[in-house]
Structures are given as structure tokens and as C-alpha cells.
Amino acid sequence: MNKxxxxxxxxxLAVVVLLFVFKFILMAIFGGGGFIPPTDSVNASKxxxxxxxxxxxxxxxxxxxxxxxxxxxxxxxxxxxxxxxGEAVKVGQVLARLDRSVELxxxxxxxxxxxxxxxxxxxxxxxxxxxxxxxxxxDLSQSSAKAAAAxxxxxxxxxxxxEIRALFSGKAGRRxxxxxxxxxxxxxxxxxxxxxxxxxxxxxxxRFVNLLKVGLPLEITSDLWSGVVNxxxxxxxxxxxxxxxxxxxRGVLQTGGKAGLFVGVTVITEEGQNLITIxxxxxxFAPFGDSVFVLEDEQNGIYxxxxxxxxxxxxxxxxxxxxxxxxxxxxxVSSGAFKLIPNGKVSINQNAAPSSxxxxxxxxx
Length: 365
Hints:
- By secondary structure, the chain is α+β, with helices and mostly antiparallel strands.
- The protein has helices spanning about 5-30, 100-130, 135-160; strands at about 40-45, 50-65, 65-70, 75-80, 90, 95-100, 165, 170, 180-185, 190-195, 200-205, 215-220, 230-240, 245-255, 260-280, 290-300, 300-315, 320-325, 330-335, 345-350.
- Helix 2 (about 100-130) packs antiparallel against helix 3.
- A hairpin with a 4-residue loop joins strand 13 (about 230-240) and strand 14 (about 245-255).
- It has three helices and 20 strands.
């Protein structure tokens, strides 16, 4: 036998051997030859029913109930500044005073004119009663007295406007003027915000509009706070914004607010649903559908893993609601599902079971 024939025979023999080996491998994988795959160990928990309230999450901005930029009503030179930046002020407190020397001098002359005009008017009234003067002379005296009184009132009002006062109690912001500076009409002096009540303005999608009601509780979070601050809905805009398809909502917060603060807002609705609940770790999320493994047909502590497609609802903490796909009381794999195959054999090991809390908290190790 020449070498070429021997080489061909050896190659043919090798192919036959490989085919037999491949056949035995396939028989082992698909149950042929009595092969039994190993049992996987997983954690499992029973699906239970709880009341789920729809929670609407959004983000918003805090604004004070009262917030204004205090401005000069009259032009003039700043004579006194009677507050400091960041200081708490009371309603009616004088914040700044402009130079009023000219107006005060004019007021002295105007009051003297008023005194004289009032005396002339009293005398004319007496003479009219005795028919010593005509009615037209009396009317002229009366109008002169009124004009003099109006001039005094005008000067007093102008002097009053040169004392810039706080219209409400609150906290002053950064001072924007200095002593000796000339202010024009409308020039800003300081921002003033109240601290008794704060608003939270936010928007939610239009699909939730029927769930929104005045008085519903709010949970407000911020990176400035260590926990959750509570508020309530004060008003709901009756119109839906055509550009965004969202409805504007205003809530109220009693304490802890800060003007302009960005916050997270959660609306707790009134209407709830009893839905099946499982740990979030039980779900295998996939673009073609979410699924869980359910353990059935227990024999001597060994279960069969059945894969079921589920339709999910909202998530809260470590828990997630199941709208359809499994029933209450079914034993659901909570961890270790990644290593299971449909109809595989499974044993339960509850050591190091995953958390299933509505309000999980991270613990320091």
C-alpha cells in the first residue's frame, strides 16, 4: 500500500471517530444515554399581593411664597443703609433712606401755606354765613385750602417713598447699593424672600391628569437634605401645555425650602391596586420580553424551573409589581436565575438571599 492510500485511510478513520464522539456528546446534552445534568442552587421567594399606589415622579423648583426685588421709587442719593446682606428683616423695617433734605425744606413751606390757606378758608366760611362775601370768593378760598393740603400730602408721600421699607418679613439677599450712591427710579436695592411658606412648581405627563387632586401628599427630595420632606398639592393647572403635553402642578412646603432649589418630587395618589409583588432581582429583562423562573413539581427538595413571561408594573425599592404572567403564592427564583435553563432541576439555598424591601438602605461594611 502506497503512502497516499494510507493517508486517506487514516483521514477516513479519524472522521468516523469524530462523528461517533459528536453523537455521544449530543446524546449527553439532550438526555440520551441516561445523562442527568447537575442540580443548580438558587434563592427563591413566594409571590405575594400588596397594595400598590401609583407614584408620579417628577422634578421641580422651589420658590418662596413672597419674593420681590426691592427697588427705589424715587431718585436720590443713598443717605443710610439700615440692613446687612442675608439679614432677617421685619415687615415695615426701613432698609435704606435716600437724601430728603430738599423735600423736608419744601414741606415746611407747604405746611405754612396750608396753615394760612386753612385760616383764610375758615374766615371765608364765616363771612359767607354773614353774606359779607360772594359764593365765588368762598369757593376760591376753599380750593386754595385744598390745593395747599394736597401739596403737603404729596411732599409727605415723596419723603415716605425715600424711606425704602420691607413689605413683608423675610430674609434679605445680597445688598446691591452702597451709601453715597445715586439711585435712579426703579434701580434694584436688594432681593427679599419670605421664609414661612414655599411653593414647589413641577409638571407631570398628561396621562396622570385624572389622578391629580388638591391635597395629595408629596415626597420631596434634594441633595441638601438627608431624608424626605413632605408637602401637599395646592393647585393643578386646568390646561395641558400643547407643546409638552404636560400639566403644571404647584405644591406647598412649610419649612426647609430655599428659593430656586432644584428638587425631586413624588406624588402619592389615592387610588391603589392589589398587585402581585416579587423581588426585582427575580426578573430577567430583555428587549423581546421580561421573564422569571418559577419553581414547580417539588420532589425530595428538587424543583423544576419553568420560565414564564411577565408584564411588569411600577418598581418600588427592591420590589416590582407584576400585572400578569404569574399567580400569587408561586415560588419565584430571586437570585441565580442567570444560570438556569427551562425545565432544569433546581434546589433552594436561602443563604445570602437578596433584599426585597420597599425602602432599602445601604449599610456601611
